[in-house]
Automatic annotation (TrEMBL):
Protein name, as recorded: Heme chaperone HemW
Compartment(s): Cytoplasm
Any Pfam family the entry gives: HemN_C
GO molecular function list: 4 iron, 4 sulfur cluster binding; coproporphyrinogen oxidase activity; metal ion binding
Keywords from the UniProt entry: 4Fe-4S, Chaperone, Cytoplasm, Heme, Iron, Iron-sulfur, Metal-binding, S-adenosyl-L-methionine
Cellular component terms per the entry's GO annotation: cytoplasm
Repeat recorded as keyword: no
Residues covered by region (Disordered): 391-415
GO biological process, alphabetically ordered: porphyrin-containing compound biosynthetic process
PANTHER family, per database record: COPROPORPHYRINIGEN III OXIDASE, RADICAL S-ADENOSYL METHIONINE DOMAIN-CONTAINING PROTEIN 1, MITOCHONDRIAL
This protein's record includes keyword Chaperone: yes
Radical SAM core domain segment(s): 4-238
Required cofactor names: [4Fe-4S] cluster
């Protein structure tokens, strides 16, 4: 008999799709706001969307909320407040529920951080990328290094102690010493959490069409990563995921839930959700229409659902590994069974292969990636994809996440 598929902790993802300007490397569902974006109608749409999805999560408690974008910090605090009041009237929020808002330092305004805090936001994630003015210019960012530092300090003065800073490395024109200087400036601000992403050229971005000059080669990028990783460890930040580092007890609860193959309700334009339906012993993926104008017009109705898909049992090991093998802690085999509804025997051959390759280690109860395994996570994950292909006769390319959007994967990369 198969293990019982048990509904895991539930998170709420809220997508706010506007930015001041579209960055040339960005493939997120983000749109340049020409003039003021329709903030209040969008909050109405989000609440209607939430009402529509509520029957999928009746009686469940929300353990974290993440406002991602786009640039959520473009939204006035009154709009965030109204949404959170509406959401907490419809769903039970766990005590101490982590509520994160992504913030572009170029949108910081005096007084805004206090108001976000008063609305219930208790964690900010700053898209810093770099403190170097030349790098920031080449990335098309709307802020300079000094503005980035000042925005973080303003948030700290407003009482935020749980801050994440996003840094990118392997930037055009950057050498390893510059990447280290960026990291030093970030550490000087003493954030609780740091996300360190290698710049990637994503399809359908300006950078992919016309790659910028001066991109570091792979060896140089690897050198930057190793140096920064060592410096972060020395400064007391433990790497708990491929790109995520935290002080003790400061891991991002929201992203950890993704990586542990937890559940999330996704509302907002293009938002993706994954929900375990205990009674049906099924896993449902649902995503919303992508374009903000269409979403605004249709939210709350069936037309706003871009698609629904059941995750077939044969695909679950791959989806589980796509998340769990990013984590330094790995996973308990018991968790695999509860989250996928499959016996551990279903993945025994691939696990043995990954252990042989030196990518994973196991004591029979837990499975952990080795240092090599974290570096070659994609190869380890791809082993579980083969099984899906064999079982469904539907070939899927390694790295192809199907209904799992690149945003979900990188966001659960990204903070
Ligand atoms: C939605 S953005 C964060 C908030 C806000 N929009 C901003 O950029 O300031 C999420 C993060 O993903 C990372 N990111 C976006 N595109 C990337 C790319 N092509 N390569 C690596 N990291 C990327 C950036 O660090 C960015 O801060
Ligand atoms: S990186 Fe952030 S600010 Fe830039 S376009 Fe993407 S979501 Fe918007």
């Amino acid at each position: 008999m198969n293990p019982v598929l048990t509904p895991p902790p539930l998170s709420l993802y809220v997508h706010l799709p506007w930015c001041v300007r579209k960055c040339p490397y960005c493939d997120f569902n983000s749109h340049e706001a020409r003039g003021a974006a329709p903030f209040e109608p969008y909050v109405d749409a989000l609440l209607a969307d939430l009402d529509h999805d509520l029957p999928l999560v009746w009686g469940r408690t929300v353990h974290s909320v993440f406002f991602g974008g786009g640039t959520p910090s473009l939204f006035p605090s009154e709009a965030i407040d109204r949404f959170l009041q509406g959401a907490s009237g419809r769903l039970r929020f766990a005590p101490g529920c982590e509520i994160t808002l992504e913030t572009n330092p170029g949108t910081a305004e005096h007084g805004r951080f206090e108001a976000y805090r008063a609305a219930g936001v208790n964690r900010l994630s700053f898209g810093i990328q770099s403190f170097d003015d030349g790098c920031l210019r080449r990335l098309g960012r709307i802020h300079d290094g000094a503005e980035a530092e000042s925005a973080v300090k303003q948030a700290q003065d407003a009482g935020f102690d749980n801050l994440n800073l996003d840094l990118m490395y392997a930037l055009p024109g950057q050498d390893p010493a510059m990447a280290e200087r960026d990291l030093e400036r970030a550490l000087a601000l003493q954030p609780a959490h740091l996300s360190h992403y290698q710049l990637t050229l994503e399809p359908n971005t300006l950078f992919a069409a016309r790659p910028p000059a001066g991109l570091p080669d792979d060896d140089t990028a690897w050198d930057m990563q190793e140096r920064c990783q060592a410096r972060l460890a020395e400064a007391g930040y433990a790497q708990y995921e491929i790109s995520a580092y935290a002080r003790p007890g400061r891991q991002c609860a929201h992203n950890l839930n993704y990586w542990r193959y937890g559940d999330y309700l996704g509302i907002g334009a293009g938002a993706h959700g994954k929900l375990t339906l205990g009674a049906e012993q099924a896993i449902l993926r649902r995503w919303k229409v992508k374009h903000p104008a269409q979403y605004l017009a249709q939210a709350g109705r069936a037309e706003a659902v871009g698609g629904d898909e059941r995750v077939e049992p044969a695909r679950r090991p791959f989806e589980f590994m796509l998340n769990a093998l990013r984590l330094a802690e790995g996973f308990a085999l018991e968790l695999f069974e509860a989250r996928t509804g499959l016996p551990r025997a279903a993945i025994a051959p691939q696990l043995a292969e990954a252990v042989d390759a030196g990518w994973l280690e196991t004591d029979g109860a837990r499975v952990r990636p080795t240092e090599l395994g974290l570096r070659f996570a994609n190869d380890a994950i791809a082993l579980f994809l083969d099984d899906v292909a064999d079982n469904t006769s539907e070939r899927t390319r390694p790295g192809d996440t199907g209904a799992v959007s690149a945003e979900t994967v990188r966001r659960a990369g990204p903070d």
